[in-house]
Amino acid sequence: MFYSKLALTNLKNNKKAYAPFILSMIFLVDVNVIMQILLNNDGMNTLPGADSAKSLFGFGSIVIMIFTVIFSLYTNSFLLKQRKKELGLYNILGMGKRELGKILFIESIMVSLFSIVMGIFTGIIFSKLSFLILKKMTGFGDGFTYSLNIMSLGYIILFFVGIFLLLYVINMIQLKLVNPLELLKGTQTGEKEPKVKWLTGILGIICIGAGYYMSVTIESPLKAISLFFIAILLVIFGTYALFMASSIMILKLLKRRKSYYYQPTHFIAISNMMYRMKQNAVGLASISILSTMVLVTLSTTGSLFFGMDNVIKNRNPYDISLIVPQDKVKEVETLFKTEAKKYDLSLKEVDHANLSDGLMVIKDKNHYNLLSKETKNLNDFSKSESLNFMTQDEYNRLEKAGLKLKDDEIALYSMNGKFEGELASFGDKDFKVKKVIDSITFIPTISGISNMLFVVVANPKVMEETIKALAPNDYADYLEIEPTVYANVTGENANELTYAKAMKNQLKEMGLTNSFSSAAIDREELQAFTGGFLFLGMILGLSFTLATGLIIYYKQISEGMQDEHRYDIMQKVGMSHQEVKQSIRGQIIMVFFFPILLATLHLAFAFPLMSNLLMLFGLSDKKLFMIICVIMVGIFLLIYLVMYAQTSKVYYRLVERKAI
Q1: Which family is this protein grouped under (predicted)?
Q2: Residue ending a domain, choose from 188, 217, 247
C-alpha cells in the first residue's frame, strides 16, 4: 500500500512530464484501434478492389505499429531523464534500487492501465467517426458497414502491454547502471564545450546533396521507385549529421563576433545552447525529419485525391475502350451502340485505332534496339521504351490530318518529353524525322514505368520491314495489328456506370476484358483508392505531428529545468524580466525555426522525385501538386507556430523568477 501511494503521489507531482506522455499513449492506442477496426471490418471484403484496400490499410497499420514502438521509446527516454533527480533522492534517503523498481513497476501499471483503457474507449468512438469519414471520402457503398472486431482489440491490448513492459525493462536497466550520485544530479549534468566536427558536417552536406541530386535528376518513374528509399535514407542521415556539426559551428561563429556575443540576451542564449548542443542536435534533426514526413505524406495523398479528374482523363482519352482482335471490331462497335440504348445513353465518336503490338526497345542516342526478353537488368528496364507503329493513313483518319510521308520518313510522338533530332534508327533501318507530333488524342497520356513512343510510317510494308529490322528472329510475334475500339458516352453518370459494368460483364463472356477500360468504373475505383490513401495520409500526418509537438514540449521542459537555476542567478545579479524574455525568445527562435525551414527545403527538393512517382498513378498536373504542397506547408507552419507558442509558455514559467 505504501508503494502504491508513493507511486500515485509521484505521478501527481510529475504531471507536467507524465500528462503529455499519457495523452500521447492514448492517442497511439486510438490510432492503432482505428486502423485495426477498419482493416478487419467485415465490409472491407465486399468492396471493389478489396485486396488493394486491405493491402493499403495493412501497410498503414504496420507503419503505425512501428512508429508506436519507436515513439514510445523516444518519449520514455525524456520522461526517465526528468525523474532521475527524484529517484536519486529516494536512493540517497535509504530506498534501494529494488524498492525503486517496485515504485516504477506500480507507476507503469497505473499509466498503462489508464492509457490502454482510455485509448480503447476513445478509440472505439473515434473509429466510428473515422469510418464515416472514410466512407464519405471513398464513396464505399452500403456493403461497407461498421463492425467491432473483439479479436482486433485483444491484439491491440497485448501489443501495448508488451510496449509498457519493454519500457519498464529499459528503465530498470538504466536504473541499475547508474550510481545514486549520478541519479541525484539528474538533468544537471552538463556537457563539455563541443568541438566542431568538420568531417561530420561535410559528410552531412554530401549526403543531403546526393539525395537532392537524385531527386532533381531522375527522369524515369522506374528510377524514382528504385532510388526513392536510397534518397530518403541519405537525406535522413545527412540531416542528423548536419545538425550535429553545423549547429555547433554556427554558435561558435556567433561567439567569435564580440559585438554580437557580449550582449546579455545573446550571451546567455548562445552559452546555454552551446553546452547542450549534442542532445539538441538529435532532437532538432528529429523535428525536421518528422516535419518533412508530414509535408510529403499529406502533399502526395492530397494531390492524388484532389487531382482525381486529371488522373481519370489521362488514363481514359475516351469514356470506354477495348483492344480486340481484328475480326471482332464491328461486332464490338455494334454491341457498344445497342447496349447504350438500354440505359438511355447516346454514343459519339464510336471508332477504332489500328496499332502494332508494342515492342520494348532501348534507346542509344536516337538509335533503338529491341530489349531482350531474357534481360533482368533493372537499369535496362529503366531506360526502355514501349514502341508502337501505325501507318500514315490510319493516323490521318483518326487525327483528321494531312500527313504525307516517303518510305524513308517518319512522324514521331514521345509521351515523356519531346523527341529531339532529325534522324532515328530502328535496328539497321534509318529514317528522317519529318515531324515531331505534340499530342495524340486516341491514346492514354498516363506515364508508365517506361516512355511510350508512337511512330507513324508511310505504309504497312515499311512497318513490316522496320519491325523485322528490330526483331529479326521473332518479328512475327509483333506484326499483328491490335485495334482499339473506343467511344464517348453522354447521359446520366449513374447510367454510364451501370452501362460500363454491364458491358464489362458481356465482354467477359466473350473473353475480351483483358484491356477493357471505362472512365466511370475508373472513377469509382480511383475514388476508393485515393480516398483511402488520403485517409491513411491524414492518420500518419496526425501521428507525425503529435510526435513533433511532443519532442518540442519535452525539449522545453528538460531545458527549462536545466536553465531555471541559471536564470534565477542572473536575475538575482540584476538581469531584468524583459532581458530574460528577450534571451529566451532568441534562444527558442534559433532552436525551433531552423528545423521547419530545413523541412520546407527538403520538400522543395523532393518535389521532382514525388512528381515522378505521382505520374505512375496518372497524375500529371504538377501545378496542382505544387499548390497542394504550398497549402500543406502553410497549414503545418500554423500548427507548428501554435505548438511553439504553447510549449514556450512552459519554458517561461520554469525559468522566469517572479518579481519581488
Answers
A1: Belongs to the ABC-4 integral membrane protein family.
A2: 188
